[in-house]
């Protein structure tokens, strides 16, 4: 009977974890259980359903005609489209004896009207689901910051001076080290002096510049350990009315934590990192900034920022980093004649966690061989040091193919275009995503326009280029099948890059070349293709949403791989490690990819290959 079966119902199972207590009680009053025999049709494709089903025991196949799309197990729900939108997208058939919780349609609709987070699960388009999920993570941001360790915050370094150091010398020391506080050793005691202490001593107390700094520093040092929590630091700052705390590690002072550092944990340090890059005087300084950028990605994701915005911020910071490195290591002849390019996901502005290097150098005219050899090794070697893994395909400045005059590179493009080789097509794809980050940007525009002129209107060439979309298949999402092997991983896993991101990125890239569209981000290319009539407006939105869904899932996998030390699995998601809501969204995104692949196949007659 309704209401008798609620005891075993898991309200922590998404999307029911988004319900308030009163809403849970309303659900408890109407919940029922249904039994379905093997091969029984539970919900038929194209039909409405008066019940939302949540599998308790057994398995349910999701079928589109004779094609098996997925196998649902315990805690999976179906079919939201049949309940909310009046027509199931597929058939839902019991594989074996199956028990399901049953929720009446009118109750589901009422909860949707009053709870936006719960409603996101039932939206037909992926983009609104992503927005709701990102918004939910935002509410967790402050709490996660308070639980962070002090060592996770950006902190000023520890610089010590003797108590006999003069006020003037202390001021110059702060300036030289780009800090605003010093530790002062005076015999057996240690104190702290700040820039404000020095200013007040001179301006308000009229002390001479040669006054020993011991006369103006504070020896009542308030400190925290690097392993303490941020909320411990906030309590101490409030209790002692301090804006800055000393940080200890193994009994020694190792730096300072300021209130702005805590604010940086909450709001992010993206506004501070450009200054650090601009002030960098050597490769060590730049290495620190590169580390800050990587930490920023995890911070912004933890605080609920949408993945496309994280990618945009990260790309901007990385481009600043690459530009500064170019200025540091490029000889004058290369700075005057060269254009530094970033390609791949960096060029499209879609990279979050750094993967491999994809960069190149175009020259307006030849430069001395010695300068070019020196730059190739200095630039790529510095990126190795910063933690950017070398490109497996050697698409790097270090490779002479990717660092030459623009005339020579255009000849290389022609050779790649007419070779009709898969590796050559991939090189073309990588280059078409190039963006200039330093030097003369006209060089990359000139090379891209030459490439478009070679390929525009050439149906056979474009078809061979588009055929790369068939490199990897887009799987159906079934946890009881072995079809995941088709994308290079085991059953129950999916490679997000191969199954989702690459087909979207490359299909859109091909259409962009066909239409002479020079913008780089995939989402911007989709918008341009919609404006030209190459893509339907609604489908363009779905395609962009699916891309962002895959980027979100991949970012989660990348961060998890970093913490586990399993970098080789950075784009692999295990289906048993994601929620039912996430699996539902992943199914939606894969469905969009399959539709897009079919569109590209028909447009370029890929069935002829």
Automatic annotation (TrEMBL):
It holds the Pfam family CBS. It comes from the Bacteria. One of its GO terms (molecular function) is [protein-PII] uridylyltransferase activity. This is Cyclic nucleotide-binding domain-containing protein. PROSITE patterns: CNMP_BINDING_3. Residues 15-129 form the Cyclic nucleotide-binding domain. The keyword Cytoplasm does not apply. SUPFAM superfamilies: cAMP-binding domain-like, CBS-domain pair. Keywords: CBS domain.
